[in-house]
Amino acid sequence: MYGVEQKMLLRHYLEQGLSKSAIARRLGISRRTVHHWIATGQLDRDLASGEVRYGPRSPVACKLDRYRDLVTTRLASYSSSWHDIYLLSSGDPNTNLQHMR
User: Fold this and answer.
1) Res 68: pLDDT
2) How far apart are CA 36 and CA 30, in angstroms?
3) Predicted model pTM
4) CB of 8 within 8 A of CB of 45?
């Protein structure tokens, strides 16, 4: 994360007329970052107000969304079987194959 100091120095160097490449070298950041900060107006906002807080992202469709109901239904119907298999694999002497039938 870049600090407020770097953005303040960037604004100062821009006012002095330094090139963006020279500013990037002095600050130890990429030229792309310098261009991004200028293009998005991050130097125009009040830097003393603190970090930018972002809201929650909008949900993005997943490839498996079409099958969510099917998977949920099948997992619910097999949940007790999976529990029994887990108990058998854990080596619990109180469980045996007769319990699963």
Assistant:
1) 87
2) 10
3) 0.43
4) no
Q: What is the mean pLDDT of residues 16-32?
A: 91
Contacts of 84 (CB under 8 A, 6+ apart): 95, 99, 100
Side-chain-side CA neighbours of 77 within 13 Å: the count stands at 6
- Rounded average pLDDT over 39-54: 69
Report the pLDDT value the prediction gives residue 31, as an integer from 0 to 100. 92
Q: What are phi and psi of 30, to 5 degrees?
A: -80, 155
Say if CB 52 and CB 41 are below 8 A apart.
no
Tokens of 21: 């490449």
Q: Please give the structure tokens belonging to residue 90.
A: 């854990």
Q: Report CA torsion sign: 37, 42, 44, 47.
A: negative
The CA-atom distances, in angstroms, between 61 and each of 5, 39, 56, 64, 73 are 39, 30, 15, 9, 20
- Residue 48 makes CB contacts below 8 A (sequence gap 6+) with 4
